[in-house]
Prior knowledge:
The protein has helices at residues 11-23, 34-43, 60-63, 81-89, 102-118, 154-165, 173-180, 192-207, and strands at 3-7, 27-31, 48-51, 72-76, 94-97, 122-125, 128-131, 134-137, 142-145, 148-149, 171-172, 212-215, 219-222.
Amino acid sequence: MDTILVIDDDLHIGNLLEEILTRAGYRVTRAYSGTEALLLLNGGLPDLVLLDLMLPGLSGEELLPKIEGIPVIVVSAKAGIDNKVELLMGGAADYITKPFDTRELLARVAARLREASCGEGGRRERNQLRYQGFTLHTDTHSVFLGGQEIRLTPTEYAILHQLMRNPRQVVTKSQLLDNLAEDTPDCTESSLKTHISNLRRKLRSAGDEEYIEAVWGIGFKMRS
Length: 224
């Protein structure tokens, strides 16, 4: 049975989501703030997260980049296209606008869970991200291609981690720098190009292919 974490401080909406998902056969856990959600995630990963944006304390936008290795569907009353694009580019797997249709919600949940378990060319497991033959272990910060470990610097690992979280989405340079700032302070705007160049070279040497694409004027993504 798949477990879904509902993060929403609105008791009525949270209860509604829990009822809908429970009837559909899912196990549901609840969090009412971003801080509470982080505590729950540190204790064990669900299979999918439904995330509201307007949370007390740590907002949904702040919480999103901290959720790793599992699909996140944003459920929000913010209907602006800029909000949707920014969050999808920032790591969300999907976006549903409140008020939502129950059938659409369940269909999107099922689709994102299916992609997470055996998506097109990529697969996620607990503490692992997999794509194009690579396995990235988020617990040990190690990367393998087949059975061969690829030695990466902490910054190179962090960049690859960001790209593999949503391998079909373009990650902008500013998003990379923002997400890497806390853990890898040596990665600056001026050095980012060098770190990515070194990472691409190491991946190319391991697999004789180009695995990271530069999207001119925007950022980078994993090769499809």
